[in-house]
Design brief:
The complex is a heterodimer of chains A (about 325) and B (about 400).
Chain A (H helix, E strand, L loop, with lengths): L9 E5 L4 H13 L2 E6 L14 E2 L2 H8 L3 E4 L3 H13 L4 E4 L6 H10 L7 E3 L5 E4 L2 E4 L6 E3 L2 E4 L17 E6 L3 H12 L3 E7 L10 H10 L5 E7 L4 H12 L4 E6 L23 H10 L3 E2 L6 H9 L8
Parallel strand pairs in A: 1-2, 1-4, 2-3, 4-5, 5-6, 11-12, 11-13, 13-14, 14-15
Antiparallel strand pairs in A: 7-10, 7-12, 8-9
Helix pairs in contact in A: 3-4, 5-9, 6-7, 7-8
Chain B lengths: L4 H10 L7 E4 L2 H13 L5 E5 L12 E4 L2 H13 L17 E5 L5 E10 L4 E7 L6 H7 L4 E5 L8 H10 L5 H19 L2 E11 L11 E3 L2 E5 L8 H4 L9 H8 L3 E4 L4 E5 L2 H13 L6 E4 L6 H13 L5 E8 L4 H14 L6 E7 L2 H11 L6 E3 L3 H13 L1
Parallel strand pairs in B: 12-14, 14-15, 15-16
Antiparallel strand pairs in B: 1-4, 2-3, 2-4, 5-6, 5-8, 6-7, 8-9, 8-10, 11-13
Helix pairs in contact in B: 2-3, 5-6, 10-11, 11-12
The chains are: A alpha/beta (about 325), B alpha+beta (about 400).
Chain lengths: ~325, ~400
């Protein structure tokens, strides 16, 4: 079990002929994702290096391949349009990797998506979503996985399916940051804790799925034993999530908030990571999460250990 | 991206928000000439304001009211030859290169009016207050009820009924109401069409009743705009307003190479991939008793050249007594970073301790590259995980 995607999810790539789109389509195929095609307007009828069919429009791709998820790599000026095209053609999971989409575009896209209540947008400006597959052979970066689904740019091999987890436990991971997500995944895997699904929600101020929607999915998912939530400075999403957790969440949640040392008013890389007022500092968020019963890791190095403790599993590292 | 007040006033005037006429000057002589002309045209008092991307100008003495051409010359001379120091500039202060001269306006009442991105509601929101002319953060803290909010419809923008509601709630009367409504609607539209992330008028003023304006006039006096960097590709006019002399030179240089860099006050340089991990690296340094010298995100697709450039920027900061490299390879391949380190060691040389922690894509290859180069880079230590990396670099700079 997992949320959003699993080994049966059929994925297309919008922007498959661009360098990033092509590179990561190959990466997803290598992980075992059922990649079924791609879209680049004007290149319909061709095949990519992996032999996948390319279509001019998403509607054709969906009709021919039965795709129910998409990975978007189109350049920022056109990313909003690509999201709307996928939604209009019934693609249920839209994962927008593209970084640098104007906020005004996302405000309009977000409003238009209200017409498609069954569509889930992840991102933009995110690493993507992965439901880890079982390891069938190999070690480290050259390991082979089966029955998983990776949609995005994360290194697949650091993840661990619940079936492979020595502790028999798996957590869901929700994160505003890319590489910090890998850090959390790696730490949990090292401690023998698997991941049910990991979702990078992205670093932009206006985006698709947020903490609360995903927490609610993880709460219902039978394979998820706990949730790691990685937030950062800026906005009030983590604070609102804390209040929601207290009311609705029965599974343990461990949080980490990046940016305790960030100065006020400076954008720290992500468009959304800027401190505006007293409430959106890391310390304010940590305090409010703790008040709502969430375990907050002080150090980014303690995310895995805090989760292990919350799950009540042994501490011995597997590596 | 930020712009100057004189540029913001230009945008407002063009968008139909009334602004008293202003003139931007760049020298003392020019200031005296313009002031002389304004007085000749009947001004009784004019205001001279330093144009810098930082607040706190009034208290620092960089906003002055003058009553004669000579007073204008003295004020301009002071502002153009002294650095402005305010809580927002840091102790070194900022050089002032441009001044704004404008007719001083009699003020009956001051308001606050702004539009900003409202992430909680996935739209933009207009914020207004009858307590204008002061820091809005202070109002929010001390008297939150004095702040009014109206969200912009994500597709239709601010509607006239919303502006009317705000205008009446702010206490405008008679013909003032329509003037205020016009300011609000035009400001909201300017926000949307210019891809702004903040459009702030503080203060928006009401002038006293005169024979020509029996209900007074609603005017924008000072304005501050920030824009969405990601949208500048379609905002040529705004993009042209960029003033590189107002930016930190190291940050500008980093941007050219696709690096995201913010200078800080500590002595441990950081080179990290990913914004969240970069912030966390700063945090863990602090947890181990150290102080980060910078935020630096090399991004996911940096070249070896960009990595070398990143080292150069970090090492040029004299405060830096040690460097921590923390890479979790995803799209970024660890071997690229390793080659960048070797290249930087050859070209720049590491005179301060360097602690390297690598994990993720191509990490084995990267470790081999660093192992081979170890003899040449004697300041380098490797770390097994985040805690190890932070404690090693903190020990290296204090020891």
């Amino acid at each position: 079990m997992s949320i959003l995607i699993d080994g049966n999810t059929k994925v297309i790539c919008q922007g498959i002929t661009g360098s990033a789109g092509a590179f990561h389509t190959k990466g997803c195929i290598d992980y075992g994702t059922k990649m079924v095609g791609g879209v680049t307007p004007g290149k319909g009828g061709q095949k990519d290096d992996n032999g996948l069919p390319i279509f001019d429009i998403v509607a054709d791709a969906v009709q021919e391949t039965g795709a129910n998820a998409t990975m978007i790599f189109v350049p920022p000026p056109f990313a909003g349009d690509a999201i709307l095209e996928a939604a209009a053609d019934g693609v249920e999971v839209i994962c927008a990797i593209t970084e640098g989409v104007p906020v005004q575009d996302m405000i309009r896209v977000k409003a238009a998506l209200r017409d498609y209540p069954d569509v889930h947008l992840i991102g933009p400006n995110c690493p993507g979503v992965i439901t880890p597959g079982r390891k069938t052979s190999g070690e480290g970066a050259s390991a082979i996985f089966a029955d998983g689904c990776k949609i995005g740019i994360m290194p697949g091999y650091i993840h661990m399916a619940k079936d492979d987890a020595p502790t028999g436990k798996a957590v869901g991971i929700i994160s505003r940051s890319g590489t910090l997500t890998y850090e959390a995944v790696w730490q949990t895997s090292q401690l023998g804790i698997g991941q049910s699904t990991c979702v990078g929600i992205g670093g932009d101020p206006v985006k698709g799925l947020n903490f609360i929607e995903l927490l609610s999915m993880f709460e219902k998912d039978k394979a998820t034993d706990g949730v790691v939530m990685i937030g950062e400075i800026g906005g009030s999403d983590e604070t609102e999530a804390g209040a929601w957790i207290k009311k609705h969440m029965s599974k343990p949640v461990v949080a980490f908030i990046a940016g305790r040392t960030a100065p006020k008013g400076k954008r720290m890389g992500h468009a959304g990571a800027i401190i505006g007022g007293a409430d959106d500092t890391a310390d304010a968020k940590m305090k409010s999460l703790r008040a709502n019963g969430v375990t907050v890791a002080e150090s980014p190095a303690d995310i895995g250990a805090s989760m292990a403790e919350a799950l009540g599993v042994a501490f011995a590292a597997t590596a | 991206m930020k712009i100057h007040e004189y540029q913001a006033r230009e945008l407002l005037a063009d968008a139909g928000v009334p602004v008293p006429t202003g003139h931007m000057v760049q020298s003392v002589d020019e200031a005296a000439t313009v002031a002389g002309r304004l007085f000749d045209e009947g001004a009784s008092m004019i205001v001279i304001k330093a144009q810098v991307h930082a607040g706190g100008r009034g208290k620092a003495g960089f906003v002055k009211l003058v009553k004669s051409r000579n007073e204008a010359r003295d004020a301009a001379k002071f502002m153009l030859s002294n650095k402005m120091v305010s809580p927002q500039t840091g102790p070194d202060g900022l050089e002032v290169k441009r001044l704004l001269l404008a007719d001083a306006v009699d003020i009956d009442k001051e308001f606050y009016l702004a539009v900003t991105v409202d992430r909680a509601n996935n739209t933009a929101t207009m914020i207004a207050s009858a307590e204008g002319g002061v820091e809005i953060e202070k109002v929010a803290e001390e008297n939150p009820d004095a702040i009014l909010r109206e969200p912009l419809h994500p597709l239709l923008g601010l509607q006239p009924y919303q502006a009317r509601k705000l205008a009446f709630d702010l206490g405008f009367k008679g013909k003032q109401v329509n003037q205020a409504v016009k300011c609000m609607l035009n400001l909201a539209e300017l926000f949307r069409t210019s891809d702004a992330s903040l459009a702030e008028i503080n203060p928006l003023v009401l002038t006293p009743a005169t024979d020509a304006h029996p209900d007074g006039q609603v005017l924008a006096i000072d304005a501050k705009f920030n824009f969405d960097d990601n949208a500048m590709f379609r905002q040529k006019r705004i993009a042209a307003m960029f003033d590189p002399t107002e930016e930190n030179p190291a940050e500008l240089r980093a941007n050219k190479f696709g690096l995201s860099y913010v200078a800080l006050d500590g002595n441990i340089g950081c080179l990290v991939n990913g914004a969240g991990l970069a912030m966390s690296t700063m945090d863990i340094i602090k947890l181990h008793g150290g102080e980060p010298a910078n935020f630096l995100d090399v991004g996911g697709s940096a070249t070896e050249e960009a990595v070398r450039e990143a080292f150069e920027i970090i090492l040029e900061d004299d405060k830096v007594k040690g460097v921590l490299v923390n890479i979790f390879g995803g799209i970024m391949q660890c071997d690229k970073i390793a080659r960048g380190i070797v290249g930087a060691a050859k070209e720049i040389g590491f005179k301060v301790p360097l602690v390297v922690r690598l994990e993720g894509t191509n990490v084995e290859l990267a470790r081999e590259i660093l192992e081979d180069a170890k003899a040449d880079i004697d300041m380098m230590q490797s770390a097994t995980d985040l805690t190890d990396a932070a404690s090693k670099v903190c020990a290296a700079v204090t020891g």
